[in-house]
Amino acid sequence: MARSGKFAVGLLSLLAGTSLAGLVPASTAAAASSSRMEHSAASGPIHIAFFGYAASNAYTQAALAGVESVAKKYGATVHFYDPNMNATTQAAQVEDATTSGSYNAMVVYSVAGETVVPGVKEALARHIKVVADFVPIGNDIDTFKNQIPGLSGSVVVPIDETGTAVGDLIVKACAGLNPCHVVYMPGDNTLPLEIDRTNHMLAVIKSHKNIDLEGMIQSGYASSTGYTAGEDALTAHPNVNVIASSADQAIVGVELAVKQHGDLGKIKLIGGGGTYQAVAGIKSGDWYGTVNYCPTTEAARATQILIDAMKGIAVADNQINSLTICGAPTELTKANIGSYKGEWSAG
């Protein structure tokens, strides 16, 4: 197959099966049930609803730790809503939390930024304070700017930058190899953010004639699914030089598969996350690099902005590209990692 065909097939496979579900606005009757919270935003107890990817997701757990650490300082309560990575479920959870009358603040780490918009708008209309965490809320997931009027802030990752970063790392890992055989592993190729990230990765590597993208295999966001994807990659592409994934969690599993095949240190591994495991792997030479994220710092900053808004404190810097607050370069390699330790575990 020609190189251009491989890129086209990859793009088509990622676009297949993607859908975004909308929300039905809350009823007038439900609005009355939450009126007691509408008047408590400026003072009194703070009750935060946190919406994440999934309880089983390591990034979500690291983000939840950041929310809880700041909430504890102010005596605020936190309730975690688990959509199990389902955008439609999460949209309904935002609606339910809004109409419940139990919360006056929300940290929204959305599965799909566009899907939660109606629920977030309804929450804002009821005077519930809302901040975006990790994924931008709105149609544009490549910006860190607020897209919804009334949003208290956004501490998020512009998704295009992560795709560009993993593409850059692949290019660097392939330097001096011609051809350089690459397998890329998106975590979940039905998620809008993964489609966007992959498209930006492809845009970077397609101009490098030495790079042969041999395949794309969905890796999931766990070491177990990463191990399976790694086995599949090594079987189908025995001459692979670079395996990259959007998730460190997956590369932990890939690393085990590569080690069992006797190729650790020979195949360059690239992850996404900046986890403890990635940092250790980069320093040892078992990994080539990772795209660095800091979910605990990110969520803590978002929660501080939220609580300041609850208290009526003006926050000038309330729209933040969270890739810039991690204390280390976004494209982490042995050349620039220094003494950086990371701040979360791949699980």
Structural summary, described in words:
This protein is elongated. The chain has helices at 3-15, 28-33, 35-38, 58-73, 87-100, 117-125, 159-173, 192-205, 223-236, 248-260, 276-284, 295-310, and strands at 47-51, 77-81, 105-108, 129-134, 153-156, 180-185, 211-216, 242-245, 268-273, 289-292, 319-321, 331-333. The chain is built from 12 helices and 12 strands. Strand 3 (105-108), helix 6 and strand 4 (129-134) form a beta-alpha-beta unit. Mean pLDDT is 89; it is low at 1-41. The chain has 347 residues and is α/β, with parallel strands linked by helices.
Itemize the secondary structure elements and their pairings.
Elements: H1 3-15, H2 28-33, H3 35-38, E1 47-51, H4 58-73, E2 77-81, H5 87-100, E3 105-108, H6 117-125, E4 129-134, E5 153-156, H7 159-173, E6 180-185, H8 192-205, E7 211-216, H9 223-236, E8 242-245, H10 248-260, E9 268-273, H11 276-284, E10 289-292, H12 295-310, E11 319-321, E12 331-333
Parallel strand pairs: 1-2, 1-3, 3-4, 4-5, 5-11, 6-7, 6-8, 8-9, 9-10
Antiparallel strand pairs: 10-12
Helix pairs in contact: 1-8, 4-12, 5-6, 7-8, 9-10
Task: Identify the notable features of this structure and list them briefly.
alpha/beta, Rossmann fold, 2 domains, six-stranded mixed sheet, 12 helices, 41% helix, 16% strand
